[in-house]
Design goal:
Chains A, B: InterPro entries: Nudix_hydrolase, NUDIX_hydrolase-like_dom_sf, NUDIX_hydrolase_CS, NUDIX_hydrolase_dom, WH-like_DNA-bd_sf, WH_DNA-bd_sf, WHD_NrtR. The structure is a homodimer. By secondary structure, chain A is α+β, with helices and mostly antiparallel strands. Chain A is about 25% helix and about 25% strand. Chain A folds into 2 domains: about 150 residues, Nucleoside Triphosphate Pyrophosphohydrolase (Alpha-Beta Complex), CATH 3.90.79.10; about 70 residues. The structure holds a DNA duplex.
DNA sequence: GAAATAGTGTCTATGAGACAGTATACG
DNA sequence: CGTATACTGTCTCATAGACACTATTTC
């Protein structure tokens, strides 16, 4: 295709070598929970998983890769990523954020490709229907630890590492845990989600700190029932636990104060 | 130019409409300090400034814009940004970080352009020589507050706002203040730098906190002279102040613990 | 001695960290 | 009655936040 750009001067972008494509790649994370065998009421095992697709074409035919696709002229990179995300998972209204750009020369054998990575955090509940519908062999969720040890297409191993570092940092400094939780959740669930993403995270007094310390009070709030009584859940425990929800309040972290 | 990509299949990127360019735009911040008139030894006035260039060509001829330029096939976006940065300012080895991508359709009248913004933090000392050399009328530092009120080319007002938000956040959560400071600095200088970037920042006990609280101890350290005595400076004060340097240690901030 | 910056003393309320103890309900 | 989760009590030490106070040097 020969590009002609009409404009008011003699400028023409077609004088220059231009990129062969600007793809978006999406790192779709979800947390899979599995009931522990034996006990009924107990906290589930949780595992961070990432969605990969198996390539059917050159290049990297047969290899697993992050889902993605090319941006077209009439959409933004973000639109493109959301479109791809919906095609791959069937879900909308999902937490997605821009992560990084990959532009090293030679990173894509098809030509000069500037790839943009987006991280999507999808609640497993939203993914369930879809998973049943087409359990295609070429689209699968892998435990992140497994994906890290696979040889992925392109520079996708690096993209995955960067994305992981990105969400680990965000998990601790923002309230993105919300994306992996139901609207109403218990403190243990929140704790588990954080630990699933950031395994090093540990805090004996977590419950007390998140609910009772002044500086953090306001991040989550107790859910109340119709009559003003506190709403509880005993999904995971004999003793019912208080349900909480995020408030939207986000304290500003600082090194210096 | 008609693109032909040789490869082992019948894939050809040239079948698709491709972008007309992938520019990098650089938001070059510096902190200008000015001695206060009258008093000799006193803390200078500091002001956050941003570098703009005046466009000579369509589009937006005559308007001020962020410096930037097109990426070529044999460099990464980061390389491109560093190249442009050096062309514009003559400096290397500067703190620069990737900020965001701008891809809204129609954002550039020349065609389909996916722009990548980089934030550079340049110490005014490094900029001084250059500024004297060519004080070109079409490249200037503006106070950020002035730039915000100008009508910049393209979507550069938005790019600037995003970059500002980016460095404000980073200023409080990382040690990028380092980029605006000499190797050895006083606590007051550090405090001033933070305040210049984040005007809301205020902390009566700053000195004590940064030097004496366990959780933060290790971010900066006292500079010692040859004989192990503490190195002081009285550049800004009658009473000499302890000099500090950054250690490289970066505590991990967390909402939850 | 006034001015300007640097730094310390001290008090109170809050929070971190650790560990033991109690509460609830199911099987 | 054991077990798994959900909390609460309590102790110690560190920190935040506020405000007054002292220290050093120059003009």
């Amino acid at each position: 295709m020969n590009k002609q750009i009409e404009n008011e001067s003699n400028y023409s972008a077609s004088k220059y070598r231009t990129p062969d494509g600007v793809p978006a790649d999406i790192i779709i994370f979800t947390i899979a929970s599995e009931e522990r065998a034996g006990t009924k009421k107990s906290l589930p095992m949780r595992e961070l998983q990432v969605m990969l697709i198996q390539r059917k074409r050159w290049p990297f035919e047969g290899k697993w890769a992050l889902p993605g696709g090319f941006c077209d002229e009439f959409e933004s990179m973000e639109d493109c990523a959301r479109r791809e995300l919906e095609e791959e998972t069937g879900v909308r209204d999902v937490h997605m954020e821009y992560c990084n750009v990959y532009s090293a020369p030679g990173r894509d054998p098809r030509g000069w490709m500037i790839s943009h990575s987006f991280v999507a955090l999808v609640n497993e509940a939203k993914l369930k229907d879809r998973r049943a519908a087409d359990d295609a062999a070429d689209v699968r969720l892998f435990p992140v630890s497994a994906a890290q040890n696979m040889e992925l297409a392109f520079d996708h191993n690096q993209v995955l590492e960067d994305a992981l570092a990105h969400i680990r940092q965000k998990m601790l400094t923002t309230t993105i845990a919300k994306a992996f939780l139901p609207e109403e959740f218990t403190v243990s669930e929140l704790y588990q989600v954080i630990q699933t993403v950031v395994p090093e995270f540990a805090d004996q007094n977590f419950l007390r700190k998140i609910t009772s310390t002044q500086s953090r009070k306001g991040i989550i709030e107790e859910v109340l029932g119709a009559n003003g009584e506190r709403k509880m859940s005993n999904r995971y425990s004999q003793r019912a636990a208080q349900l909480y929800r995020f408030t939207g309040y986000k304290p500003q972290l600082s090194l210096y104060s």
